[in-house]
Amino acid sequence: MKWQIPVAECQALALPFENNRGTTPSRRDKPMNGQMMQQPLLISSLLRHAERHHGEQQVVSRRVEGDIHRYSYRDLAARARRLAKALAALGVGQGARVGTIAWNGYRHLELYYAVSGSGAVLHTLNPRLHADQLVWIADHAEDQVLCFDKGFLPLVEAVASRLASVRHFVLMTDREHMPAQTAIPKLLCYEDLIDGQDDRFEWPEFDENQASSLCYTSGTTGHPKGVLYSHRSTVLHSYASALPDALKLSARDTILPVVPMFHVNAWGLPYSACMVGAKLVFPGPGLDGTSLYELFEAEGVTLSAGVPTVWQGLLAHVQSQELRFSTMNRTIIGGSACPPAMMETFEDRYGVQVIHAWGMTELSPVGTVCTLKGEQLAWPKSRRRAIQAKQGRSVFGIDMKIVDEQGEALPWDGQSAGELLVRGPWVVERYLKGEKSPLVMHGGQGWFPTGDVATIDAQGFMNITDRSKDVIKSGGEWIGSIDLENIAMAHPAVAMAACIAARHPRWDERPLLVVTRKPGAQLGRDELLAFYEGKIAKWWTPDDVVFVDAIPLGATGKVLKNQLREQFQDQLVGRA
Ligand code: ADP
């Protein structure tokens, strides 16, 4: 087909009109740059936006000191600028790592913006890690400054002499709450640092690919690995996670992140809340059901976010006191699979929509979010629920595929299960000081192997069936532990369930269920196993049940299956 560019457009493109007839492009054709402004995507721009367009919006925190603190985005921005100046005065330069050990609160938020905004790197440490692991991580990251909440003073005192790279220790409190005596030499007071500066400070402009923050994976196998986010990856992740089919964040929301700011940046909410101008409510150390519920109601929280184990405590409180949620309309649940029984309770009894999401430290963390497509809204409830139990569709920016053990791509049929690979602008390319990129090549591109086993259906809904190291291989066939746990959790007497691979003389591995009962509930092995009948293929039914008082949880609230395996892997040895 002939094509011809109109004269006016030829003039605009500076092309001679007579040369633009025919089917072949002119030899003068060459790529053109767009003519739009170059503006780096920087974390400081999120704060600048929040200050200018949502200056009155509130940030409310339950303080470590016990009281409620309340101020505005305008106050946050001014204090972050003063803090940036104070850090510069301490000699914190571009790229320097500033560690934090802190709960969710306004001072932690100030550090998020002051450190990254001035070109240094915010390193959030998880206080629930073992002290040796904390030392290892701070050392590996070469943290120069360590800022920490008052409650962590004994922890930091115990390890301070081993933190070789740390030049300054800062206690995140005011003068009045500083300890009279401490083992930490020259301990600095956070509020003194801020009081010592004014807020006349311009956020510097630099390359958007500069590092902004650092999080370590929890390291269940080997040493933890450092994931170094950039300003660009963080801002893009904020855009994508705020979208309506993702977390649907807006200036009308009041967001209470239960997920800690030391766990993958509280899933990016401290950034995306500023981007959209939402009110932020921080729970501090009070993560029990009673304290959380009180804040939800007092502050009119519309959206919360956390791992399933946190919601168990909250739901138990709300149920036992016969309470309602008067403002919360949705909650994001991720980090591990949300049991459908929990989803049902939230939605059917309390009218709170559960948004199931999947992510990883290596993905900043949001990868997929489970929101229904238009036609699915009209489906019967049971069919809708089956979709909602999946981990969901990829948000724009994340591409995914599943592959078999030979690396062949598997079909999106909702049945074929294989390792999930992802790529995108907020996916890790290499680990801090890692010699080798973790990426695998597929179809000429580098993909990050997630270590999760998943199916993807024809509509693009991804469903994690297991982590590859938790898969149960029975007689050469895979059994997904998450399905088995979800069924157990639907039993009214079960508080928590974990399914692990136990060694078996005939089948190599068979599923073994480890369960805690609800307080006062009666439940025996046979009754629980009978509950599986008709819900799954018979050969998937666990071989046995072990009742325990507590299931071990890791630093981010996830079940430590490796510990359970160590303890119970020989439970079935000797069975035929
Ligand atoms: P780790 O637990 O290894 O420190 P992350 O906190 O980054 O690392 O957790 C990532 C892992 O958590 C994922 O690879 C996946 O196995 C699990 N996960 C996260 N969200 C979900 C979910 N909604 N359902 C099932 N598993 C999940």
Description:
- With 576 residues, this protein is of the alpha/beta class.
- The chain folds into 2 domains: 43-398, Rossmann fold (3-Layer(aba) Sandwich); 470-568, GMP Synthetase, Chain A, domain 3 (2-Layer Sandwich).
- It has 17 helices and 26 strands.
- It has a 9-stranded mixed beta sheet, sandwiched between helices.
- A hairpin with a 2-residue loop joins strand 22 and strand 23 (477-479).
- Helix 2 packs antiparallel against helix 3.
- The mean pLDDT is 93.
- The structure holds adenosine-5'-diphosphate (ADP).
- Adenosine-5'-diphosphate binds next to strand 14, strand 20 and strand 21.
Which properties best describe this structure?
Rossmann fold, alpha/beta, GMP Synthetase, Chain A, domain 3, 9-stranded mixed beta sheet, 26 strands, 576 residues, single chain, 7-stranded mixed beta sheet, binds adenosine-5'-diphosphate, globular, 2 domains
Silhouette: globular
Can you tell me the residue ranges where pLDDT is under 50 for at least 5 consecutive residues? Answer: none
Give the termini distance in whole angstroms: 73 Å
- CATH fold-level label of the largest domain: Rossmann fold
CATH architecture of the largest domain: 3-Layer(aba) Sandwich
Q: How large is the count of helical segments?
A: 17
What is the CATH domain class of the largest domain? Alpha Beta
Whole-angstrom Rg: 26 Å
- Beta percentage is 15-25%
Structural class: alpha/beta
How many strand elements?
A: 26
Main sheet makeup: 9 strands, mixed
The CATH homologous superfamily of the largest domain: ANL, N-terminal domain
Bound molecules: adenosine-5'-diphosphate
Q: What is the residue-averaged pLDDT?
A: 93
Total domain count? 2
Question: Looking across the biggest beta sheet, what order are the strands in?
Answer: 2-1-11-10-12-13-14-15-16
